[in-house]
Specification:
This protein is of the alpha+beta class and about 150 residues long. The protein has helices at about 35-50, 100-110, and strands at about 15, 20-25, 30, 60-65, 70-80, 85-90, 115-120, 125-130, 135-140. A hairpin with a 5-residue loop joins β5 and β6 (about 85-90).
Length: about 150
């Protein structure tokens, strides 16, 4: 798999029926090891291990309904009351982060109305705070620590 600009970690990878699978601790099961999944597992590990995000408040592959169509958010951070606070969208390392990717996550946010959006391909990471009052996104210099989220 591609080298990422994220801390290395000891991913649990197994081969089953000739296909590689990686353990997803949030879903508590092995899933197909795709380039996007490689990014997801590294980024989730980064959020939990380096940024202090509680794993119990993160969830992967959350279904939403947008204009009558079923969609899936890659990852969502919830607050302690169970309200969504952040959407994370992952792309494979070979996929450039473009405005189309932000359009996708913005559409998901029509439903969820979160405070923070993150897009990453494992190499480039973008985080923005949604400013609902001025109808814009403010890009942050870095991915905030969990404790910083309440202050932003």
């Amino acid at each position: 798999m591609a080298e990422l600009k994220l801390p290395a970690y000891n991913a649990k990878v197994v081969v089953k029926d000739g296909k590689r699978n990686i353990f997803d601790p949030l879903r508590r099961k092995y899933v197909a090891l795709t380039p996007e999944e490689w990014v997801r597992q590294h980024f989730i590990n980064f959020l939990i291990s380096c940024k202090g995000y509680p794993g119990s408040l993160l969830a992967n592959e959350i279904a939403i309904t947008l204009n009558g169509t079923s969609k899936r958010c890659d990852s969502i951070l919830f607050d302690r009351q169970g309200q969504p606070q952040m959407i994370v969208e992952y792309k494979a390392p070979t996929v450039k982060i473009t405005s189309k990717v932000f359009d996708q996550i913005a559409r998901y946010n029509i439903v969820l109305k979160v405070k923070f959006l993150i897009v990453t391909n494992g190499i480039d990471h973008y985080c923005c705070k949604v400013d609902y009052q001025n109808n814009r996104c403010v890009f942050l210099q870095d991915i905030p620590d969990y404790e910083e989220l309440a202050c932003l």
